[in-house]
Write a structure and sequence with these properties.
Chain B: It holds the Pfam family ABC_tran. The complex is a heterodimer of chains A (about 270) and B (about 375). Chain A is mainly alpha-helical and about 270 residues long. Chain A has 13 helices and no strands. Chain B has two domains: about 25-250, Rossmann fold (3-Layer(aba) Sandwich); about 255-360, OB fold (Dihydrolipoamide Acetyltransferase, E2P). In chain B, a hairpin with a 2-residue loop joins strand 4 and strand 5 (about 85). The chains are: A mainly alpha (about 270), B alpha+beta (about 375).
Chain lengths: ~270, ~375
């Protein structure tokens, strides 16, 4: 028995080692390339130039804003819908699941082309109408709401899976009934009992959404906006070392944001227990 | 006679004769789910301070009745009255009915103490007061040392105790127990049912207890209501229900019954060559059978007797023998274990029924 356990442990260690090498070696090589001064020493020139390049802060802030708003809109749309289906109309669950999974089968380029088609539509005689002005307003380069709409659609399948997994682990109907039996109204039962028990899955949904928004390039680029992913692409073309530095910096920033979100979630959980 | 448990500050936890003991009445209650009728004109009254068990097979409507009383289901017609007041329009969170659910329903993100105090928090009770009361309730259910534990750190029995404390925290007028013991193992179930009964009697709280376990119902309840297909078959004390079942369904659902063919006579029925008076009415037509409990069947060793001993099951003080009559009818009989030793499998026995009225039914299909 002990021998078998040792074998399993060895097998796990081997898999971990192979995976570690697969991920770590290219990153270590990239990092080394980005700081190599070709004279056997190191230099952070590529990074300092990158950080001082015009548009760095603006594009990063825009990406973070887009990510935050996308998470809020997505959760505001998804959580009530999924909970309502669980509590009041369980038969609707497959319908919601299919609808939320639809964006997976639509290529991003096709989605973006569709968005362009919608944005271009609009005859001149509608120019003074609120509809036309809304279409213009959602394309404001300072905060392109149209990107939020696109990102919400793209993140829907991942966020839905995360929330659905959380709901499967909790007997929502019984918890809500128990809360109501204790004197809580519907809304209070949801806020005081259901949502705290979905904290992990909500956090997972948020993390996945943020990762998707920070890394999304195609839609933003085609629609002509400059969030961080588009900015690093355009600023990394000047020389090879800088392009690799841009990749490393991008990875680092996304990791930091995700780690921060996970740490906040864990911190709250630890404080509770 | 019940006595109200008193808190440390002298205030009764659930006054036995005031808010803690209401009269509950179901009047002609009907509820259908599509083509399935769950309740078909249920009429039932739960007296103040009593523990009434709703007993019946799956789908008989017992849980539906409880959920309608709790406010989680709406009835199609009829009335639900608590102390004479129709509560149909009152939402679940204002019904003043504490409930313990079948599945563990503690809030996973809250400690035992916070679970018990949850209702008081919803009611706006101050933090210090609700913690004090929650501690007292935890003591009442014997778990003060688990106050800071989360549900996943407790056993099933402990979780149901906490759920009971939570249900009692708001001093409800009615306590609703929806098969609270069914998920527990046999030993814990036995302990907890004694504890629930003790608390119910101490607090004098009107309690409706749903179960499909007849032993649970008979051992805990003041009265047992047997439901069948949404209708009340009989509501009586456990001893009356067992000893004088009103219908063949009740007789066979509560305890074990054997059916023995019989024929009509002018003043009753004839079973195995002997005449018996009938308890209740004799069906006007069809083949008849008498229903008889194992402890009422008398067997004695007799080589020329009509019964062949088929099996013997040791049950402790008694042994249950299954005998087969010449027409193939199987009858169960409980004998003291010493007496049963004289009737091994394969031996023949004489079979008699006691001189008392018997319950008669049409031949079962």
């Amino acid at each position: 028995m002990a021998r078998l356990i040792n074998r399993i442990r060895f097998g796990r260690g081997l898999v971990l080692l192979v995976c570690g090498i697969y991920f770590a070696v290219p990153m270590a090589a990239s990092l080394w390339f980005s700081v190599d001064d070709n004279k056997g020493g190191t230099t952070f020139r590529a990074y300092t130039e990158l950080l001082n390049a015009p548009g760095f802060t603006d594009s990063l802030v825009l990406s973070l804003e887009l990510a935050a708003v996308t998470v809020v809109v997505l959760l505001l749309l998804l959580v009530p819908a999924v909970l309502a289906a669980r509590l009041g109309a369980p038969r609707l669950r497959p319908v919601i699941e299919i609808m939320c999974s639809m964006p997976l089968v639509v290529p991003v380029v096709a989605l973006t082309t569709g968005i362009i088609g919608v944005l271009r539509w609009g005859p001149d005689y509608l120019q003074d109408t609120p509809f036309f002005q809304t279409v213009v307003a959602i394309q404001d380069p300072n905060f392109p709401v149209v990107l939020v709409i696109a990102y919400v659609l793209m993140a829907l399948p991942f966020a839905y899976r995360a929330i659905d997994a959380g709901l499967r682990g909790v007997d929502v109907v019984t918890l809500v009934e128990a809360a109501r039996n204790c004197g809580a109204g519907w809304l209070r039962a949801v806020f005081t009992v259901v949502l705290p028990n979905l904290r992990s899955s909500l956090l997972n949904a948020a993390v996945l959404t943020v990762a998707l928004v920070l890394g999304e390039f195609t839609t933003a680029s085609i629609l002509g906006f400059t969030p961080f992913s588009v900015w690093i692409n355009s600023n990394g073309k000047s020389d090879g070392q800088m392009s690799v530095a841009v990749s490393m910096l991008s990875l680092l920033i996304v990791w930091l944001v995700l780690l921060l979100m996970s740490a906040v979630g864990r911190g709250r959980k630890a404080a509770r227990s | 006679m019940t006595t109200a448990t008193v808190l440390a500050d002298g205030a009764p936890l659930a006054p036995g004769t005031t808010s803690g003991s209401a009269t509950v009445e179901f009047r002609s209650l009907r509820r259908a789910f599509g083509a399935t009728t769950a309740l078909d004109g249920l009429d039932l009254t739960v007296r103040p301070g009593e523990l009434l068990a709703l007993l019946g097979p799956s789908g008989c409507g017992k849980t539906t009745a409880l959920r309608i009383l709790a406010g989680f289901e709406q009835h199609d017609s009829g009335e639900v009255l608590v102390d004479g007041q129709d509560i149909t329009a009152i939402p679940a969170h204002k019904r003043d009915a504490g409930m313990v659910f079948q599945s563990y329903s503690l809030f996973p993100h809250l400690t035992a103490l916070d679970n018990v105090a949850f209702g008081l928090r919803m009611r706006g009770t101050g933090k210090a007061e609700r913690r004090r009361r929650a501690h007292e309730l935890l003591e009442l259910v014997g778990l003060p040392h688990r106050a800071e534990h989360y549900p996943h750190q407790m056993s099933g029995g402990q979780q149901q105790r906490i759920a009971l404390a939570r249900a009692l925290a708001l001093q409800p007028r009615v306590l609703l127990l929806d098969e609270p013991l069914s998920a527990l193992d046999a030993k814990v179930r036995l302990q907890l049912r004694e504890e629930i009964r003790r608390l119910q009697q101490e607090l004098g709280i009107t309690t409706l207890f749903v179960t499909h376990d007849q032993e649970e119902a008979l051992s805990m309840a003041d009265r047992v209501a047997v439901l069948r297909a949404g209708k009340l078959e009989q509501c009586a004390t456990p001893s009356e229900l067992y000893g004088r079942p009103a219908t063949a369904f009740v007789a066979e659902f509560v305890g074990t019954m054997s059916r023995i063919p019989c024929t009509r006579t002018s003043d009753g029925v004839e079973v195995l060559g002997r005449r018996h008076a009938v308890d209740g009415e004799v069906p006007a037509d069809g083949e008849l059978q008498v229903l008889v409990r194992p402890e009422n069947v008398l067997l004695s060793p007799d080589e020329a007797g009509p019964a062949l001993v088929v099996t013997a099951s040791f049950l402790g003080a008694v042994t249950r023998l299954t005998v087969r009559l010449d027409d193939g009818t199987e009858v169960k009989a409980d004998l003291p274990t010493e007496a049963a030793a004289a009737l091994p499998a394969g031996s023949r026995a004489g079979l008699t029924l006691p001189e008392r009225p018997v319950l008669v039914d049409r031949r079962a299909a």
